[in-house]
Amino acid sequence: MERFGARLQQATGRRGPLCVGIDPHPSLLGAWGLPDDAGGLAAFCETVVDALAEEVAVLKPQSAFFERHGAAGIAVLEQTVRAARSAGAIVLLDVKRGDIGSTAQAYADAYLLAAAPLSVDAITVNPYLGFESLRPFLDTAREHGGGVFVLGLTSNPSEGTGLQHARVAGADSGTGDPSTGGPSTGDPSISAAAAVLASVRAENAVAGAAVGSVGVVVGATLSEVDLASAGIGGAGLDVGGPVLAPGLGAQGGTAADVSRIFGSVIEQVLPSTSRDVLSAGPDPAALRSAALWQRDVLLEAFRV
Amino acid sequence: MERFGARLQQATGRRGPLCVGIDPHPSLLGAWGLPDDAGGLAAFCETVVDALAEEVAVLKPQSAFFERHGAAGIAVLEQTVRAARSAGAIVLLDVKRGDIGSTAQAYADAYLLAAAPLSVDAITVNPYLGFESLRPFLDTAREHGGGVFVLGLTSNPSEGTGLQHARVAGADSGTGDPSTGGPSTGDPSISAAAAVLASVRAENAVAGAAVGSVGVVVGATLSEVDLASAGIGGAGLDVGGPVLAPGLGAQGGTAADVSRIFGSVIEQVLPSTSRDVLSAGPDPAALRSAALWQRDVLLEAFRV
Predict the structure, then answer these.
(1) Do A67 and B110 touch (CB under 8 A)?
(2) Alpha helix (H) ranges present in chain B?
(3) Strand ranges, E, within B147-263
(4) Phi, psi (5° rounding) for residue B18?
(5) Which residue of A54, A230, B20, B192 has the lowest C-beta tally within 10 Å?
(6) Is the dihedral of CA A143, B42, A104, B283 positive or negative?
(7) With 0-12 CB in 10 A as exposed, 13-18 as middle and 19+ as buried, what is A187?
């Protein structure tokens, strides 16, 4: 199977650099006049997939909103994933899984094997238990043409307690570009986020493809100062693979922000929005228009 | 509803301080002569619950092994949880979820609300996005008598990349006991694991119950040196709530190790084993014997 990085690049080249999150929040079900149960969830997802899966490059269902409804919700997730992929969308399932050993392998098998009921193109993963704890995800994805997006930096330092800002020994950060935009403090340590990005960069370098299949998640709501303070500003964002940037739209990031902040990796950034598009529903034409408008704004901003 | 901390203490007082993990690994299904599908999974779990749920204080299903089988696997998980709770066991679902805002709330609702299809007594959570990102889990658990176990320290420092060993500013570690057993280096920073334990301790202190309902996960395979190097040795392990210690048995920790290393919090430690008990199956009597033997060894070791 073709590698995920190449497939993603083709999809965004054809359809534009946009990811739309499928976040069936109870309040959104209510706004659409749907009950907060598995039936409402199914109707919601069917409408979103019908309206968007033939137009948008990447759809990103958020697992939590399906898990709320137990097995019946997961059945809707299975159906949603299948329908979206059949219509030509790449499906990135937002599950943020992370575990060790055979449990990490079980999660990888659950989402990255073609034969699995919940087989998707890519998933998000959590590196808290150590980047090497993600090895089963990385290996399974590589063997089966899938993608993995590792949580990098999602909150700004002023929010305080995020372990993404913890300091780790910088010994193996040498695999990255030295000009990471971080402040020069004489401190040999680097942020946990910078260490994660360095590990992803090394992983993509070893794989040796033109476009890597291991991505990172870096919030679209962060400022240049936030990125610089975590030591991942400018060229430091280049991990040789895709950069998922959630938070576009209702959460505060604009296309111009994304274009400016992710300018050094503009070919690889995948901005993600959800509320702004979904709240245009339930009319399918309005949903589609909202998504295509957002895509066109991004294309315009990225051209500058 | 009675608080989780009190319910857990009553259960371990009556049944002994043992948690048995339900990890239906494909190799284990094979060893039991069962197919690696939802039917095999259901037969496996039914046997385990029938054999153990009336005897063991806590059963801990590992979500990954159910997610592998999609919606059909989650239906088995629903049934397993219901049956185990009906038989009087406390169910701690090992999901290691972590997210922000309304997504974290959706995960909390999925597992900690009584009306949810997958309602359990407690879950494990991942603090990578910041301890405060766990607020929806903590609040929902408190309101509904549930428990939350936050990943603390699961790997030893020599394994290297674990962000649990990253250093964070130690400013708010003052809520804990100063004698945390860590080395005195003049460095004002503390390990991420120590910061997590301090936050859990503060959370339990605010709740003000005799036994807290917010727990931590600290590996039973760690040595005193590992804990001291992370600054959580000795009294530092006391978070005013339960300490789940996975890795007993096949993974290397013995009852004597647990008794020695967790001696300062022996009333609160909940050792967890899985492979050692499950590999005694599929004979229900053998399964039960293996669990009760493990429990008795722990009771003996803890008495010393």
Answers:
(1) yes
(2) 4-15, 26-31, 38-52, 64-67, 70-86, 101-112, 135-144, 192-207, 224-229, 255-261, 275-278, 284-303
(3) 147-153, 167-169, 189-191, 214-218, 243-246
(4) -135, 135
(5) A54
(6) negative
(7) exposed
Residues of chain A with Cβ-Cβ distance to B118 below 8 Å are: 67, 70
Q: How far from B239 is each of B11, B233, B242, B298, CA to CA, in Å?
A: 20, 12, 8, 21
Full set of structural domains in chain A with CATH? 4-303 (3.20.20.70)
In single-letter form, the type of residue at position B200 comes to V
DSSP state of B146: -
Cα–Cα distances in angstroms (integers) from residue B168 to residues A78, A157, B11, B183, B239, in the given order: 40, 12, 36, 16, 19
Residues 6+ apart with CB under 8 A from B162: A128, A129, A130, A133, B154, B155
Is A110 part of the contact surface with chain B (CB cutoff 8 Å)?
yes
Cβ–Cβ < 8 Å for A126, A96: yes
pLDDT 10s digits, B14-58: 999 999 999 999 999 999 999 999 999 999 999 999 999 999 999
Residue in B67, B99, B128 nearest the CB of A118: B67
Question: Which chain B residues are closer than 8 Å to A188 by Cβ?
Answer: none
DSSP helix/strand/coil, B152: strand
**B18: closest CA of chain A, how far (Å):** 21
Mutation target vs B (from A81, A96, A222; most B CBs, 10 A cutoff): A96
Tokens of residue A70, six digits: 């137990």
Cross-chain Cβ contact B65/A128 below 8 Å: no
Least confident of B182-196, B245-259, B286-300: B182-196
Q: A140-144, A176-180, A232-236: which has the minimum mean pLDDT?
A: A176-180
Residues 6+ apart with CB under 8 A from B155: A100, A129, A130, A133, B162, B164, B219
